[in-house]
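To: structure subgroup
Subject: Chain for Friday's discussion

All,

I'm putting the inputs and outputs inline so they're searchable in the archive.
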Amino acid sequence: MSAVRAAFASRNAGLDLLRALAICLTCAMHFVWAIGTWQYQRDFELFPVSAARSWDEGVWMWVYHSQHGVYLFFVLSGYLLSQRWLVVQNARLRPYLTDRAWRTLPGAWLALLVALGMLMLAGQTPENPALRWLENALFLNWFRRDDTHHLLIVTWSLQAEWLFYLALPIVAWCAKTLGSTQQQRVTAVLVCGLLAMALLKATSLRGAAYTLFFATGAICALKQNDWRAAIQKTPWWVFGVSYVTVNFVYAWTTASAARLQISGFGPFEWHAVAFAFVSGALLLKTAEHALGDRLGDNLFMRTGRYIGRISYSIYLWHLLVLIAFGQLLGLPGRLETLPNSVAVALYLLGLMVVTWLISLASFHVIEKPYFSRRSLDKQ
């Protein structure tokens, strides 16, 4: 068995399925936005589900409100990275940052280069393209107040991830300074999280919520053993119903556009708090392997785990595929002669197939060498 295959075999099956759910929700959000503008002549970002004019439009609008897929990734990052920094407390700064850089940056930089090339092919070459790429490659563009400097919208979450990567060692130092008990480490996470949320709330409409999601993952890592018995006793349907309910209530009542968000503590903040609770509980339930053991080694399980493994590549490339369909192939406009249901089905199928193929190539060329190197380093 190769080093990479052995590393994948040892991965938590439940967490890979949770990654698969997160990336499917994220892709659904962006793909369905195109369907909204094409089939319904509406920007779904600007409307709650309650504003739907028909049941089918309401279903598409609900699917569009799937931005919580990215929030799940934030909770997962907080949980996994806190294992070494806050639970085991054996992480070292330089290897940690080097690992995070190799994990996230090569694929992101290539995707940004392709995004810049697509802009140039469309006759929209930005001023100082090399400088624009560098600004995006370092995620500095997301500190700007305007949206004109972004080459690839999905990199907003990478900026949030990197802010967390840099903050986590500081939180760990604070935890060690306070003391060695678990409760003192939880207190450090809460205090640092609240300070970061207060700071980000003053500078960003949604930054405080993202801090909450990372902190949720960290607290789940610290309290997992204490909460294990209660989590195991709770049936799966409770977690599923709670997760769907929290996100449906938000979708029904509130448009997802950040620019429509009110200042202060509004619907998005209420949703963020509720989401933190249900996603943390779902994470702990899934992390216990119960879902993986129950489903066994069947086609669904293998497919879900594989989607989870390559989810980062899918995340980087799916939006570029969507843009390329419109820019290079004139889709979905060229499908308008077909019946609506057939046109939508063909469009979505094409997006999924091309995204899958490009993501597979990206995973094997860029990510597999990283996993191989990391597996050898652990030996």
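Points worth raising on Friday:
The chain has a mean pLDDT of 88.
The two ends are 14 Å apart (CA to CA).

D.
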